[in-house]
Design a protein that fits this description.
EC 2.5.1.15; metal ion binding; TIM Barrel; Dihydropteroate synthase; 3 domains; six-stranded parallel beta sheet; single chain; Dihydropteroate_synth-like_sf; two-stranded parallel sheet; folate biosynthesis
Length: 261
């Protein structure tokens, strides 16, 4: 899953693809390089980010999604707003990636259910302005599992097909660095729930901390390492900024796991 942030303030590439033509060109390029999905988002979820009105988010993402779909690029929409998800699906997006797991907008799961599309349910406890204060767990893996399953139950009760749900542990969202590493080290405990698991570690600050407070653009090799290990341990997908490094890393993990190339 290639990241395409159509925002002025994302932590890594904010402002770089706010122009529609630049965004579409980058999305097409990532797909041509091998990304299976281009994940288009119009609201930053970096720590401390302020909310964006749904109307503004729609104006950012819908033209880009429509243009990408016209180029036969598979698109997911990264949003917490039901109205944005609905507009994106109408424009041709085929997956909804909701970092709030349906908690930020209670209409979201009804929109997804009505559309009958795959739904990425991420573990989330609160908005970016408050999420660092919510990083308190008895056992982070058990707690994340239980809270994800509660969101699955709510989605299924609203009519979302269980077979269309993808789980995301939400690395960095109400998680401290050690919480992220423990979730990755025990990724099998999420995989064994039977749902596809998406891992989004790309350029995140816990990688920067590991590498001596390295800035986001210097975290690509660490991201590729996480991608390889996630693939080796059964992840369905990884959400990344640098498609090339990740494809190489995942190819190695796959060959290693199979015992042949």
């Amino acid at each position: 899953m290639g990241v395409l942030n159509v925002t002025p303030d994302s932590f890594s590439d904010g402002g770089r693809y706010l122009d529609r033509d630049a965004a579409v060109a980058h999305g097409v390029e990532m797909h041509q390089r091998g990304a299976d999905l281009i994940d288009v988002g119009g609201e930053s979820t970096r720590p401390g980010a302020e909310r964006v009105e749904a109307s503004e988010e729609i104006s950012r993402v819908v033209p880009v999604i429509r243009s990408l779909v016209a180029e036969r690029v598979p698109v997911s929409v990264d949003t917490m707003h039901a109205a944005v998800a609905s507009a994106a699906l109408e424009a041709g997006a085929s997956i909804v990636n909701d970092v709030s797991g349906g908690l930020a907008d209670l209409e979201m799961i009804r929109v997804v259910a009505a559309a009958g599309v795959p739904y990425v349910v991420m573990h989330w406890r609160g908005h970016s302005t408050e999420m660092d204060s919510l990083a308190q767990y008895d056992d982070v893996v058990s707690d994340v599992r239980d809270e994800l399953l509660q969101r699955v139950e709510a989605a299924v009760a609203a009519g979302v097909a269980e077979s269309s749900i993808v789980l995301d542990p939400g690395l960095g969202f109400a998680k401290l660095g050690d919480h992220n590493w423990e979730l990755l080290q025990r990724l099998d405990e999420l995989v064994e729930l039977g749902f596809p698991v998406l891992v989004g570690a790309s350029r995140k600050r816990f990688l920067g901390t590991l590498l001596g407070n390295r800035p986001p653009d210097g975290r690509e090799d660490a991201t590729a390492a996480v991608s390889a290990l996630a693939a080796f341990n059964g992840a369905w997908g990884v959400r990344v900024h640098d498609v090339d490094r990740t494809l190489d890393a995942v190819a190695v993990a796959g060959a290693w796991r199979r015992g042949h190339g």
